[in-house]
Structures are given as C-alpha cells and as structure tokens.
Design a protein that fits this description.
Blueprint lengths: L15 H4 L31 H14 L13 E2 L3 H6 L3 E5 L2 E6 L4 H10 L1 E5 L4 E6 L3 H6 L14 E7 L5 E11 L2 E6 L4 H17 L5 E4 L5 E7 L3 H8 L12 E6 L2 E6 L8 E7 H12 L4 E3 L2 H10 L26 H6 L5 H10 L4 E7 L10 E3 L5 E11 L4 E8 L9 E6 L2 E8 L13
Parallel strand pairs: 1-3, 4-14
Antiparallel strand pairs: 2-3, 4-10, 5-8, 5-9, 6-7, 7-8, 10-13, 11-12, 12-13, 15-18, 15-20, 16-17, 16-19, 17-18, 19-20
Helix pairs in contact: 4-9
Length: 450
Amino acid sequence: MIRFGVRGRSVCFESLDKHLKLGSIRESSTIFKSSSERTIPKQRLRCLIDSETRSNETEGRRSSSTASASTAPTPEPRKTCLHDLHVENRGKIINFSGWLLPVQYQEAIAASHQHTRTFASLFDVGHMLQTQVSGKDVTEFLESLTTSDLKNLNTGSAVLTVFTNENGGILDDLIITKDNDDKYFVVSNAARRDEDTELLLQQQENYKRRGKSVKLQFLDPLEQSLVALQGPTAASVLRAIMKINLTHLSFMNSVETTVFGNPIRVTRCGYTGEDGFEISMPAKIARTLVQAILDTPDTKLAGLGARDSLRLEAGLCLYGHDIDEETTPVEAGLTWLIAKRRREEANFPGAKRILSQIKTGTVKKRIGLTVVHGPPVREGACILTPEGERVGKITSGGPSPTLGRSIAMGYVPPELAHYGGGILVEVRGKTYKATVTKMPFVKTNYYTAK
C-alpha cells in the first residue's frame, strides 16, 4: 500500500530483506534456461516463498518474546486432496497462505513457465474458496457485496468482480458463475477464506432478518478439488478425455458435465494469460482425472512459482500485494469491473468514493514497468521520478522468462503513469532506469470462439 503525503508524494524505505521477496511466489534472481537439470540455488529459494507467509513467520518470531503463554498456537497448514500427488512427483512443498502446496517440481520454474506458454500445465488450486450460493434473492444478495451486473449476466457465464468495503477498498477479487437466476458458483482467494466467509455469512444474516432467502454452501477442499489446466494445448487435452464441445465454450463461460459418473464443472478461465480451464470436481475422482490429464502428451504439473510469473506477465493483480482494502478498483486500473448499470444505480459498497474517482481521478495509479538493464525488481522496491524523488513502490516484480528482462507493477501519481515514460527504481540502494509499460506485458491468448 502507498500512502501519499505532501504534494501526493510518499516516503519509501527499503531493506535488503525486502529485495529478497517477490510478493507471492517469485522466480529467482536469474532467468533459468529451459532445462530440468537446472535447480534453484538454496539462497534464492527465499524469493519464491509467499511474502504473506514470511511476514507471518517474522511477526510470529517478533511477538513470541513478549506474548503470553495463553497466545493461541499457529494453525497447522492445510492440505488439498491432491497433496499426495505433489509429494509423489517430488514437488517442493511450501506453506502458502496456510496451505501446503508445490512451488515447483523437478524443473526450474522458468522451464515450467515456458512449458505453459508452449503446451499445457496443470496447477492445483484446490486451496481457493469454492462457494455455492442459491435462493430466490441470491442475485440481489451478491450484487449487494460486489460491483458486478449479475442480473444481466447470461446463464453459464462467469464474471470477474470484487468485494468492496464502504470506503471503496477491495476486500477480495473473485469469479462468479451464473448457473441460473437462483444459483451461482463463486471462487475466491484462499488467503481471504476467513474474511470472505464471514462477509457472506453476515450478509446472509442481514437478508434473513429481512425475510429474504439466501443459502450458502462452502465446499470442503478435501471433498471438492479445483485444478487449472493452462496453455495453448489445454483444449486438445480436454477433448481427449471429456465429451465436451469446447468450440462454443468461450473465455469466462462454464459448463457442467459428467466424468467417471460424477458431476464436474469446467470453466474457461485462468490466471496465466493463456487459454485454459478451471475444473471443479469431487475429490473421489480428482486423482484419476488429473492423472488422465497428465497422461496426455506434453502436459505437466506446475507449481506456484510458474503460476506467479505467468500471472505477472499477464498483468494480473495478486490480492494482498497489488490490491488490498486500502486500494480502490479505480486506483488499481480495474474500473472496468464497475458495471454500467451499477454505476447508474450507485448501490454497491463504496460507490460514493469509487464513482467520484471515476469522475475526478485518483492520487495514485497502478502501472507496469520494464527494466531492461539491472537486477530484478522485487516487491517493496521504491519507485522514483527521473529526478530521484521517491513517489511510490513496487507491489509485484521479477524476471520475465518470456521477455528476458525484469518486469514489475506498482503505484505512482497519475502524472507519472503515461506509457513510455521514464522512471527510476531503487534496488539495494542503487537506482536503475525503467519504462512505464502497457499491460499485459505478454499478449494474452484467451479463447473468444470467433
């Protein structure tokens, strides 16, 4: 988060430790060659550990000396129903937001990244919160918490949206799929599982007091798996094992079908910028279906490291880093998430501030940066004007395996956000030239069925 003070400027301080973080799961300081024989040096693995997890660990060490004996112990990290598969395939398991997940397998992260851009990779995203929301008042219920137009959303279509607070800050980003007028399927971030659950339950209680009907079913990760198949060959992989007509299933659309005698949901979406699908299925068939996918040619397991570098190239935000409760959709460059009808009705949380920002502008704006020469720019690094004045900070950054250079996202005053503009970034006390770059950094390949 950037707090702008005098003249819209901020003061930013760095430490060596912050340069070792990349925000979420990050590539190492060197772009690796596409060879499974290359491994990441132990020292650089620190860059791959989720910063939230590291911050929690640091805070835990800091507070342990002063905390009383009654302090509640840190909960044990949870497992998805595919955990054993990751272990058997020699996945390097880390604690990611309280979940044991693979950051990589035997290949270097950059090799896995490039494989996804060329063929197809399978990611376990079973840690994310899957929720079925139903009832005669469900559309009004979900619209009361988000900025989306669900009334006019077609059946079978999905939409990216955000939960917002009364000040316009982003509580979480999520995807809502409309099964019918009385039923929706919601996928939100694992790191916000508790907050999202509480938000939905509180609003459900509000609706019940008003005599309205809304039902919530939070799916257990050990009972309902979620995987993401991403890459140019993803569609051909699914055609080989499922009887689904994918020709008419365009980006952000969903279909329910049956596999191995069990119902599954296939949504054409993802977090990599490539064509791909998210598949929600009962845990009892997850291992069998995943193995069938992996048995197709040129399909591999991929971990959080590649997932993060892919999403960074696609210019996609990571909650808790690029967006948070203090950042509005307008500031984050996500104004398009505010549906036209919702703007006219001005009846979503934080509407007053968000609509004012749309009309008059903001004091900060998310930008993309490219650094041609210099070390990778990590989360927390300062952004400076060409004259050397600190004006913002990096929220995500690292090497781009596709482009062969360092890329990053961060926030600056609007007057410095023009594409092609020169700017400086500070890494370990030294400044390097960077260019404000249009996002996505790498062209997306979403399937539009045209």
